[in-house]
Amino acid sequence: MTGGAELARLRGAVPAKRHNARTIAALTGNPGCTRRAVLDAAGVDKPRLAQRIGFPSSFGQSRFALARGNGFEAMLKADGCALLLALLRDTVGLEAPDVGYDDLGSDADDTLAARQARTRELLAGAAGAALIDHPLLTLDVAGQQVFLEPDLIALQVRGRLHVVEIKSFAVVDGQADGAKVSGAAVQAAVYVLALRRLLAELGHDETLVSHDVVLVCPENFSLRPTAVVLDVRKQLATLRRQLTRLASVSGLIAALPPSVRFDLALPPAELIAALDQVAARYAPECLSTCELSVFCRHESAGTTATLGRPVRDALGGIETIDEVLAFAAGTGEPAAEQAEAAALLRTAARLRAEALTR
Amino acid sequence: MSTLTALARAQAFACGRALPIATVRHLHVHDRPLVLVPLAMAGEANAPLAALVGTDRAAPELLVVAQPRNRDQRFAFAAALAERVLAYLDSCIGETEAVAVDRGRDVRHRYVDAPQLWVPNTGGVEFVRLLGRSTRFRSVDGEYPVPPSVPLLGRWLTFFANSAEMPGSSLLLNAVQALGLHWATGQSSVEDAHLAALLAWIEPPAGRTGVEAARDAELQPPAGPATDPDFDNAVLAPLMSVPEPDVAALTAVLREQMTPAWEQVWRSLDLLRALPAGDRVAGRWDGDRDTFSAYVQYLADGGAPQPRRDGAVAAAARLHRLENAAGRYAVQRAFDDPLVMADYRLTGQAFTGRVTLADPDRVDDTGKRPVLRPRIMVATAEPVRVEPGATLTSPARPAQKARVVSLTPTPAGTDVLLELSGGMGRKLVAEPGSVPGVGEDLLLTTLSEAYRPGATFPDPADTPWTHGGPPETAPDLSPSDPGGEDAAGA
Ligand code: SF4
Q1: pLDDT band at B487 (very low <50, low <70, confident <90, very high)
Q2: Which residues are bridge partners to A163 per DSSP?
């Protein structure tokens, strides 16, 4: 187990960047990338790092979208969650007379401890149907305790707990943007995992937390809410794997030379040299999931990976564009396992040239 | 991704500019297309913010919604867009031509022209679909009446969005996909989705490589409909979060933000027009004209708006049509374009060879009637992945079938013995030139343009409820309740 000291050395004299469900969900985006795992485990501020080394990327969020999201959530939770309760009655069968509603207070740092204690207390009782608003859960991420704030936890009558996730993207005629739904599913899975660990700690059966989460979205072009139940078992499995992997990253970190440091006070050249020491696995999908992507893309220039997975596969998994072109021209010397791909490339090049000169 | 296209991407990276992956144009480009560049409000399901629209490159009209959450303003936008779109559609309705149907026993009429709508990217297509969905059921009376042009626009936009799903249709096209069908860049398809970056690879400015030009282009505003969050926060929010937005100021910043995309779509049209059209493009456009003519007629007959969701039978029939169209489109592109056919040669589904023996007058008289069945021998050095008994076609003689009689390995490759039928006239002697002669180079493929009959589906009314029952065709015209659609911010 790597001590916090080693992670702190890696990060430098700034506080660790706090994880939240969204950043944990993002960890599943490129599970094969060691660089990201190391930086995230150490809590390095990736956006600032990218900025510092001259490869800033923009992951801004529109104020309009934020306002709409907040407005939708406020509407659902108004009057003791009246609208939401009515909706949940229909979807998870929350029964009206039993429903209690606990708001654990607003989102502020000084209420963290109190909210966490109250969440534990409510869940320790785990009886009767209730909605818990602003609950606070914790999850261990690479030896670091992360505070998580699900939108809501719904306790069903028979003691089954459901995580309720409120999102402001629309469901139109029963269809929603696939990428957004899967993003919401991973985030909800983070909460399910944290909740299960908490219940286990409290001596309850962790399967009391259902893998069916409730996603609440606006329906069609209105603000009228609709709820869908998502099964997040697959996301849970991925998440567990990635968290285990992240925990084992400590071994990797321990093996890094002492010169590797991501202290943002260091000059850019040194930071880049440090990044070079930690292997990345760039793919174009990084551009929408990782703040370091502009740097990694630049660094990977000339590899087939930058062209995207389908292209790389169609090129027989050959590593660099130079090699591909050499094989296509018949000048390269393919290794035994590359021979088949090289022959195919050669034929492809001949056919392409022939069709273009016709 | 075919190996040839992947190789083209690798080559494009190395030479610093996009390379062709087609030798002809595979879509119809209208002389007078209607271009639409939409922008939507972030966070909303489909709240139009602005649109540049028009058929004149030099004079785009900018429609702006100063308060996208305001219902009246949204429908005023829809009405303004309807005016432009419906006028354009009207301009395509005019002269008709007669088409023989039922083997010449009957004729039907179709319009000589059809509309063609262009948007920058697949997001634009989605915008069209959603705007169609949010307007086609609107009621012209009741509590929240809209002008009749609004639901009519909704039906047409839905018509366009549905046709965009049909492979080979050119009624609604998007620039990113249209360019991507003809050029391979040295970057990933994720990056190609940015129209400016894609164009930068196709036409990098002098002295700049594709990568460099694409990096510059990525700094340009996105081609919508999603806005740049920084633009939202820094420019739009201050202008819009006041009770009475300064419409003139808003219009100015939006025009500046959207003009690059407008130009890029027209530039894409120029590039595509410069390519010669494939032989089968006109035939597919005929199909588009049929579809358009039929929908004009359907509306004239008082047809209902498209249902929210297809019933089970309609959905299955539609899926079947889409699959057929996809297959036909793939084959037609290969037949039109040697560079596309090269993909099939690489996988052994097509090969070229030279005719070494020919017996053009061979008659098979073992059956009831003697039939003309010439045989030819084709020698090829390419891989041949076909079995005896398989039927091959040659793009040069698409009406003729060649049955594989035998395959004989030779030191140089394979000798393929073929028996020909069809496409040689009605007599027992082949018409001159209809049978390939000795010395002729021939391309043969397992791909076939032959008509595949559609499956038969039960009448929706006969479908049991377990299969969805009769589809929902009647629109839900109940007026919006206060908590319902479009009431937000009203
Ligand atoms: S952008 Fe770089 S660090 Fe981030 S996941 Fe991709 S390869 Fe890893």
Answers
A1: very low
A2: A153
Residues B142 and B255 both lie in one domain: yes
Is a pLDDT exceeding 90 seen at residue B21? yes
Question: Looking at B252, B281, B308, which one is the last position of a domain?
Answer: B308
Lowest mean pLDDT among A144-148, A301-305, B170-174, B386-390: A144-148
Closest residue in chain B to residue A222, using alpha carbons only: B485
Which residues in chain B are closer than 8 Å to A174, comparing Cβ atoms? 309
Count of C-beta atoms within a 10 Å radius of residue A40? 23
**Co-location of B138 and B18 in the same domain:** yes
- Rounded to the nearest angstrom, the gap between the alpha carbon of residue A200 and the centroid of all alpha carbons in its chain is 24
Partner-chain contact A308 B190, CB within 8 Å: yes
Residues B192 and B259 in one domain: yes
Mutate to test the pocket of ligand 1, among A242, A290, A294, A299 (most ligand atoms within 8 A of CB): A290
Q: Do B134 and B216 share a structural domain?
A: yes
Among A290, A297, A352, pick the best mutation site for testing chain B contact (most B Cβ within 10 A): A352
Cβ within 8 Å, pair A63-B133? no
Tell me the pTM: 0.89
Within a domain: residue B216?
yes
Using CA atoms, how far apart are residues A330 and B416, in angstroms rounded to an integer? Answer: 29
B277/B386 same-domain check: no
End residue of a domain, out of B406, B428, B445: B445
Closest CA to B195 of B163, B228, B221: B221
The answer to whether residue B321 is domain-embedded is no
Structural contact between residues B239 and B249, judged by C-beta atoms closer than 8 angstroms? yes
- Residue B265: give the domain boundaries: 3-308
Residue B342 lies in a domain: no
**B441 shares its domain with B361:** yes
Q: What pLDDT, in 10s, does the model give residues B397-426? A: 988 999 999 999 999 999 999 999 988 988
Amino acid in position A167: K
Question: What rounded mean pLDDT belongs to chain B?
Answer: 89
Can you give the pLDDT at residue B484? 38
Give residues 317 to 376 of B whose Cβ lies within 8 Å of A.
338-339, 341-342, 345-346
- Nearest CA distance, A282 vs chain B (angstrom): 12
Residues B285, B377: one domain? no
Whether A137 and A118 have beta carbons less than 8 Å apart is answered as no
The token pair at B444 is: 């043969």
pLDDT digits (tens, 9 = 90+) for A178-225: 888 988 999 899 989 988 888 888 788 888 888 989 899 999 888 889
Q: How far is CA B476 from CA A171, B19, B473, B479, in A?
A: 18, 50, 9, 9
Identify the pLDDT of residue B475: 39
Q: Do B4 and A307 touch (CB under 8 A)?
A: no
Q: Over pLDDT 70: what percentage of chain B?
A: 92
Q: What was the pLDDT predicted at A350?
A: 95
Q: A344 and B346: CB-CB below 8 Å?
A: yes
Q: Does B227 touch chain A (CB under 8 A)?
A: yes
How would you class B241 by CB atoms within 10 Å of its CB: exposed for 0-12, middle for 13-18, buried for 19 or more? exposed
Looking at the 3D structure of chain B, how many domains does it have?
2
- At A109, is the pLDDT very low, low, confident or very high (cuts 50, 70, 90)? low
Ligand 1: which residue has its CA nearest to atom 1?
A: A293
Over 60: is that where the pLDDT of A247 sits? yes
Residue pair A164/A192 in contact (Cβ under 8 Å)? The answer is no
Q: Is B343 contained in some domain? A: no
CA of A296 to the centre of ligand 1 (A): 6
Give me the sign of the Cα torsion angle A114, A117, A120, A121: negative
Q: Please report, for the domain that includes residue B436, its CATH number.
A: 2.40.30
> What's residue B468's pLDDT?
45
Closest-approach residue (CA) in chain A for B338: A355
The pLDDT tens digits of the residues spanning B349-364 come to 999 999 999 999 999 9
Closest-CA residue to B114 (of B186, B43, B28, B50)? B28
Domain architecture of chain A: domains with CATH = 4-58+245-301 (no CATH), 63-242 (3.90.320), 307-357 (no CATH)
